[in-house]
Write a structure and sequence with these properties.
The chain has 383 residues and is α+β, with helices and mostly antiparallel strands. It folds into 4 domains: 110 residues, conserved putative lor/sdh protein from methanococcus maripaludis s2 fold, CATH 2.40.420.20; 87 residues, Efflux pump adaptor protein, beta barrel domain (Elongation Factor Tu (Ef-tu), domain 3, Beta Barrel), CATH 2.40.30.170; 62 residues, RNA polymerase II/Efflux pump adaptor protein, barrel-sandwich hybrid domain (OB fold (Dihydrolipoamide Acetyltransferase, E2P)); 101 residues. Helix 3 runs antiparallel to helix 4. It is rod-shaped, with a radius of gyration of 49 Å. The model has no long low-confidence stretch (mean pLDDT 88).
């Protein structure tokens, strides 16, 4: 112990000897990454059910006829006006035949009435002339009774002519009635062919051969208009203001690898009072493998922008504030930063960091501002 002052005096007197006697301690090595600009995308997860954008319900337009033929099945793409099913028209064809016979009778009645008119007109002319001559001759030549007979004959012929005209009018009215009846029968016959009102894809066929068609009740066919299918997603009310029509989305269908592109088409204005959610309709760009009623999920690109990124592991979070360690000239600096979009293991730093700054990759409690370190640079996102 009594030699210690002597050793200390020697070390103080010779710095070279002191450096050789006390080895230097290296600063601790820390993993760092260089902050760099990159694209950040703020995505909102959504899920819901696949629904037809517009669905046409095809029912029979005539009651009580039997379905005799089906010409469309589930999944078939059909055009507007295409025949989907046929109904039994036997009874209507019989009524058409009856109408043809009644029309022929009306035509015959018209011809007969026109012939009667010609005869009545001739008789009327003859009787009128005869009566006129009798009046001119007067009582000196013809008796009063003879003149009265000619007057009666003239009046009778005029009445017959009027009756013939009335008969023609009745026959013509009957024919018009038969024409209207036939037009109605033709409409009913046309309705025995059940046709697609719009172009699209048949999503359900409930029609069956042998069943009786009815205007009311279950539609015979359901058609997805133009084949357009939407994802109808339920979104929490606090997230609805973040969405806008036209935003791109990536949709995932069950059992399929990869995403399907989509676009926000409609945002309902009403929020459900019980669930506090609103409906968002996302149009699918490819519906070839989509099925109505199936579950689907996806992500909507709410915001896309360029920003400076740092690993999420580098942040030290304390409530609403965030800090990270920056290494400059091998010394640690602590900076308060403002966070932005979180994407995977990277965080957008809106304020407090610039591209090129060297950041400690993992926040460590043993580091303090001013500490000297040996930075070990790795690629952003590495360990």
């Amino acid at each position: 112990m009594r030699h210690m002052p002597t050793l200390l005096a020697l070390l103080l007197a010779s710095p070279a000897l002191a450096a050789e006697a006390i080895p230097l301690v290296e600063p601790p090595a820390v993993t760092v990454v260089a902050a760099a600009k990159r694209d950040f995308v703020d995505r909102l997860f959504v899920s819901g059910t696949l629904v037809a954008r517009e669905e046409a319900l095809v029912s029979a337009q005539i009651d009580g006829l039997t379905i005799t033929q089906l010409l469309a099945e589930d999944g078939d793409r059909v055009a507007a006006g295409q025949t989907l099913a046929r109904l039994d028209r036997t009874q209507l064809d019989a009524l058409i035949a009856q109408n043809d016979a009644a029309t022929a009778r009306a035509d015959a009645a018209i011809a007969q009435a026109k012939s009667a008119i010609v005869q009545a007109e001739a008789q009327t002319g003859f009787a009128a002339n005869d009566y006129e001559r009798a009046q001119k001759l007067g009582g000196g030549v013809m008796s009063t009774s003879a003149i009265e007979q000619r007057e009666t004959a003239a009046k009778t012929s005029r009445a017959q002519l009027e009756s013939a005209h009335n008969a023609l009018a009745v026959a013509q009215a009957d024919r018009l009635s038969r024409v209207a009846e036939r037009r109605e029968l033709q409409v009913r016959i046309e309705r025995t062919e059940v046709k697609a009102p719009v172009s699209g894809v048949v999503s359900r066929r409930s029609a069956k051969v042998g069943a009786s068609a009815a205007i009311a009740g279950e539609p015979l066919f359901r058609i997805v208009a133009d084949g357009a299918i939407d994802l109808q997603a339920e979104v929490a009310e606090q997230s609805l203001p973040r969405l806008a029509v036209g935003m791109p989305a990536a949709i995932r269908l069950p059992g399929l690898a990869g995403d399907i592109e989509g676009t926000v088409r409609q945002i309902d204005q009403e929020v459900d009072k019980a669930s506090r959610t609103g409906k968002v309709h996302i149009a699918l760009s490819d519906v070839s493998r989509a099925h109505i009623g199936a579950f689907a999920s996806g992500e909507v690109d709410v915001t896309r922008r360029e920003g400076v990124g740092a690993p999420a592991s580098a942040l030290r979070i304390d409530g609403a504030s965030a800090k990270l360690m920056v290494v400059r000239d091998d010394k640690v600096e602590e900076r308060a930063v403002k966070r932005g979009i979180v994407e995977g293991d990277m965080v957008e730093i809106r304020d407090g960091l610039t591209a090129g700054d060297v950041v400690v990759a993992r926040a460590a409690a043993f580091l303090r501002p001013g500490d000297r370190v040996r930075p070990m640079l790795v690629k952003a996102g590495g360990g």
